[in-house]
Amino acid sequence: MEKIFFDNWDSISRTLIIGAIAYLALIFMLRISGKRTLSQMKEFDFIVTVALGSTLATVLLSKDVTLASGVAALALLISLQYILAYCSVRSQRFSKLISSEPTLIFYKGDFLTKALKKERVTEAEVRSVLRSQQVVDLSEVQAVVMESNGQFSVVKNGSIDDPTSPLFQVKRITDQIR
């Protein structure tokens, strides 16, 4: 029980020194790997962000993990994320394999119930998003899209058939679309 609040000064100094070095190493690797590493664009980007935090915490607090092992783990995660992003950008098939597509959940005044059920979203949640965008009438909105990262996009003008529209090639789950 006596080591709950304080173990020794060596433990605290190790945490401070290893923490500072690991943090600087992580910042350096993130700068090299580019902005995509911590963006919330796709599922695997989120997973990498959580894994980086967990790894950094383990390096900081576990005496069983050396600084070199921790930095190697951080470098591995960043490298794997970079490889996935690189392959995803260069291959549409690979991109579809590892991440979901945006889904149309509201279109031309209609809530698309099959899409809402598949994405596990309620009509009330969509209405909340619309209110947050200062939409006062559903007729103001052409569509609501649930993006790959789980966020919602409210599109006021556009067509699912027009290649110049932001709605073009958005996944449609239902045949209710008119």
TrEMBL record:
Residues 21-86 form the YetF-like N-terminal transmembrane domain. Its main location: membrane. Keywords: Cell membrane, Membrane, Transmembrane, Transmembrane helix. The chain crosses the membrane at residues 12-32, 44-61, 67-89. Pfam families: DUF421, YetF_N. InterPro entries: DUF421, UPF0702_alpha/beta_dom_sf, YetF_N. Belongs to the UPF0702 family. PANTHER family: UPF0702 TRANSMEMBRANE PROTEIN YCAP. This is DUF421 domain-containing protein.
